[in-house]
Amino acid sequence: MVAMERQAAIYSRISSDPDGTELAVERQVKDCQALATKLGWTVIEIHRDNDVSAYSGKPRPAYLKLVESIRAGRINALLIWHPDRLHRSTAELEPFIELCEKTDVAIQSCQSGLIDLSSPGGKMTARIVGAVARHEVDQARARMKRAHEAHAQAGKWRLGQRPFGWEMGGESLRDDEADAIRSGVETILRGGTIRAVLRDWQARGLVSAQGKELSHTAVRRILVSPRIAGISMHHGHVVGKGAWPTIIDEDTHRAVTTIMKDPGRRSGNVGGERKYQGTGVYLCGVDDCGSVVQSYNGNNGKKSYRCVRSPHLARRQVDVDEYVDEYIFEKLSGPDARIMLGNRPSKIDVNALTLEREKKQALKNELIDDRLSGIIDAEGLRRGSLRLQAEIAVIDRELARARTDDPLANLLLSGEQLEEAWPKIPVDVRGQIISRLCTVTILPSPRGRRGFDPDFVRIEAVVD
Questions:
Q1: Could you tell me if residue 245 is left (phi over 0), alpha (psi between -120 and 50 degrees) or otherwise beta?
Q2: What pTM value is reported for the model?
């Protein structure tokens, strides 16, 4: 009887190859080729999955090609270095056993010899080897998870890639990026926008830590990252103080995070960053519409304000802004201007609030201890945690107000003439000052009326 000629494939895999050298998979291939020569098999295909896990459940490109070759009948033999190179998941193993039964594929392992998937004993052995491999992975993942948790609690640097603001390894700051982060945080605290921060960083010639162009989302993620304040996180929870150099302090981090996560932050800013001081600030007065206005290019090429809800109202932008500016100058030049400074955020007792926050956080931690000790049940923990978290959120908002530079106070205390200082203020901040001082409503004017008439712009002072 003539022995069946075996047309074989080699399959090699390594889970991790951070350097991309493929040395490990090539060593497996070399051993498999030597085994093929010994068995008299002809190798016609080699499939390599480099830096690919057999446990994660993600598709393995080379493995899928191997399965397709078996299914198509192109090969009738398979060489592997060890069974766990082929499978570490019973979910993949069972379909592979069925496929090999149908196609009469012979499997040889450099480390384990013949793997007979046609016999009950061979199947049992394959399943046991697969279960042991799965157990080893589970054990390794558990050890790794605990190590990561311990490192986080100890404040150790755990990033494999360089993040924006630090050198690789986290032992020192990258000065130009760290300075940009500080500047960006100040911009937000002064009432600026993420888009303004992005423009500034782009003007500085900065790119992401991976060399890619920075985006609005990337800038936001950097500015709210606890890492820049030296806060060590694990699975979304604060676990300790980081041992790496910080870029901002924790109070500033809480302030900027509270501001940027405020759901009302964009409510008055139509289309993102405000380009004209009245956008998202002035109101439409048609039949008590009450919608905000936005800017648009009129037929004559001049900018106008128009209701965002309907084109039923439009007014030339420069005329309305000049009229509102006159009101602002008069308001801030009067005797009530200095009284406004008495209500600015710096009156908040930051130290007292910080101490109160620490007390609330300590109470939250005590609740967890009480639950673990069986003093309270899960519902008690939930109710208590929600109540304390709501109280902490209120404190955080007050701290954010205290950390935020008041643009109105800055203007009044600058020492400059108002008419000279006003155009220098960012448009977005001018809009905030107007909103704080008054409500501007653009009223519909009679048909056919030409030119600007201040009677059709109503300005009402905001009462504190």
A1: beta
A2: 0.48
